[in-house]
Amino acid sequence: MRYLLTTFGCQMNLADAQRLRGILARLGFEETQAEEEADLILFNTCCVRQHAEQRLLSRVQALTDLKRRNPGLLIGIAGCMAQNHQATLFSLLPLVDLVFGPNDIESLPDLLAQARRGRATGEFATRGGFTGEEADGIILDRPFSAFVNIIRGCTNFCSYCIVPTVRGPEVSRPPDEVISFVADLVARGVIEITLLGQNVNAYGRDLGLTEGFVALLERLQGVPGLRWIRFLTSHPRDFTPAAVDRLARLDKVCEQFHLPVQAGSDRILALMNRGYTRDRYLDLVRRVRAAIPGACVTTDLICGFPSETEAEFEETLALVREVRFESAYMYYFSPRPGTRAASLPGLLPEEERKHRLARLIELQNRISWEESQKLVGRTLPVLFEGHSERTPGHLLGKTRTGRAVDCAAPPTLIGTIHPVRIDRARAWTLSGTLVPPA
Ligand code: SF4
Q1: Which burial class, exposed, middle or buried, applies to 15 when counting CB atoms under 10 A from its CB (0-12, 13-18, 19+)?
Q2: In testing the pocket of ligand 1, which one of 13, 46, 161, 329 has its CB within 8 Å of the most ligand atoms?
Q3: Which of 40, 91, 138, 426 is the most exposed place for a label (fewest CB within 10 A)?
């Protein structure tokens, strides 16, 4: 039997996709990229913005004809949108046979069995866990690199965000489990891990640990054979100066820091319930850059938040000019039903929100391009991840700061780290020359 899995959204969903593949392989399924060949079509969904949900609805409706031609085909919806809408999805999308949330991945075998018996069912646990998440139970996109969930859910309740509602409260995976999970991955050939959580800096708080995250990093630093450690997503409120200092001593931890700021105005940050001020954020960035040479700082930004004035938007632009992020994910505010911000007064016209976003993107793109130019002439270690889609005979890799590098290199170097001299920089991709071994 064959399955087609499509994953939308964030890295947490990519990590869940590793588990979904593992479960389906154990059930004897093989993966296919062709809808026509599939016996199961599974969507691992996102609901962080209205657009993501619209896209899923149209993707499923587009399967109407295929399902008519292949009545045995099963269609499933997993992930955050499944949790957000639950069983109502069966009436919204009559084609669908099974629906389950991000905390119910282990229920897939049972849901499939019921679906085959013609019973369309769903599972929607409100609290996450790590049951069944074993290194030999997941299938990696790349054998040398793995996403590692360390904390599920979120209790920050930023006023615009639906995640706490769909992924539940913070649940940290015990440190010993994380260490043995990673050691097993390394034994399988993994050299790079990306630790994941909605807020990794809160890691261990629910286990009664203080500075649990940096303590975990210190233990992972000691795992033999592990080369690079990345993590996301951080929360500026919980990223302490002490953690920055301790983290700076760990040479396996890559100099890549995704620090979502969201806005530059203290009044808007308070309305967002972010829990920090503009100055507190700027101080964190200064500390990271002072303690970690070459640190790359990226962020998330929302413009056009309800009641945001032109002057407050200017504060966001000024913060972007001051910090000079290497890159940023930028959005205009879209109200999410079920969030507090959806009922805040002062919703700006969509045209105005779009206009602010366009101004923000223009500024950030210029800064990203200028910051990229500073890398030209430097020699950087690059982990080669695969073949370049742009240039035949080239490989594509990532630097420790997460920059994409296109470089002429033999396929035998995929999955290994090598120095590359950067010859040219575009806003998002660098190109360079492999530095021959000394
Ligand atoms: S920290 Fe805020 S924005 Fe991030 S997942 Fe939690 S509630 Fe959402």
Answers
A1: buried
A2: 161
A3: 91
